[in-house]
Amino acid sequence: MTKVRDIGDGAGASLYDCLEWLYSASDGRINVYDEPLVQNIGKFIYRVQIAERYFINFADASALVTPSFAVTYGYGKRINDPDMMAIGAWAAQTQNVGEKGISEGFGSMDRGLPALFAIAETLAADATLPLPHDVFLDEIEVFVARDQKGSTEGFFVGAKGGHNAESHNHNDIGHLLVSIDGRPVLVDAGVEAYAAKTFSGERYSIWTMNSGYHTLPTINGHLQIPGRVYTAEGIEYTYEIAARDVHHSFNDQSATFSLDIAKAYPPEAEVNAFKRTITLNRGQDITLHDQYDLKKITGDLSLNVLTACTVEASDPGVLSLKEAELADGRTSGSASIHFDAASFDITIEPKTIEDNRLKTTWGKQLTRIIFKVKSPGEQGEYILRITR
Asked: In this predicted model, what pLDDT tens digit does every residue of 25-53 receive, in sequence order?
């Protein structure tokens, strides 16, 4: 099994460690597990699960995660959440901890003893993955929807709003992920192995960090900018670098997420509004509808799409996303992207993976598709439709 980051490396799990020390030292008198914030931090792990080891990986998160069974189950038990406990039980069964002991499941040495005592109970618990039908996390504006609750079959979409000064930020306001039958189609590359450049002024020159390698537009030749508030010497105004007019809706037939991403771009992009609407039509397709209002045209307007699939141009207006080999014998999903052939010039650009950390997830390469809008006007729109 590929070595990937587990929940034991994350802030939520470290919070659980601290709360358990306080709980144990006070014989249960210091107990804050009923606090909504503490509960929601724990529940995050299953709310962003796509399928088994695949999780939403916005910012510097890993697309493949092996949860610590003891931390996940124990945290879920403390907050009385059967869904979180089920993730922990699933992790224990997946990692064969009954046969291998705690070596792969407890995360770090200080968790070893609690993990040892938790093995029998965890293995006996219900291990059915919750896989929620729909989720919206309002503080970070993360949207999650799938065809069927509790099932990886069919379409899955995750998307985000937020701002560009988040912890371990990527410039990715409006970005989306798509999986079909539990396998990745449109992806977030993630993050390469950390180096000095990762946390320097050159961070956003790294390809995985900038909006050009997320499923996002390039507006008048400009990518998204980092930070929380735009300001520059000599200008008379500032603005928040964040999504605006964020809305979501869920029902049995569809799930929709919309936002205006204009303020993620610098003033030089000359954009008044850029409304993005992502819709899951359950059991049918996923649509991406971008509507823009530009002050003027000063450069190229294009849409970047990052995929784990092999891409072939088939019929006019259709790109075939073919199953591709990833690492560890895994494969990507497959799909078709439908678009108005008269509206775009298409570039298919393989991106060779050089970094060893990314190779353990994606294998040798990802592919970027660039949909360059032909002769854009100051106002316009386009729609991409993703089908099987």
From this structure: 999 999 999 999 999 999 999 999 999 99
Find out whether 7 and 73 touch, Cβ atoms under 8 Å.
no
Contact 322, 335 (CB under 8 A): no
pLDDT tens per residue, range 302-338: 999 999 999 999 899 999 999 999 999 999 999 999 9
| Domain assignment of residue 129, yes or no | no
Q: Of 264, 100, 91, which Cα lies nearest the Cα of 172?
A: 264
Q: Report the DSSP beta bridge partners of residue 183.
A: 180
Residue 31, domain extent: 7-124
> What's the confidence (pLDDT) of residue 314?
80
CATH code at 379? 2.70.98.70
Is the pLDDT at 230 greater than 70? The verdict is: yes
Characterize the bridge pairing of strands 217-218 and 183-186: unpaired
Q: Which amino acid is at 219?
A: I
In this structure, the answer to whether residues 228 and 287 fall within a common structural domain is yes
Query: Between 116 and 218, whose confidence is greater?
Result: 218
Say how far apart CA 78 and CA 343 lie, in whole Å. 54
Distance of CA 121 to the CA centre of its chain: 32
Q: What is the pLDDT of residue 3?
A: 37
From 62, 90, 124, the end of a domain falls on 124
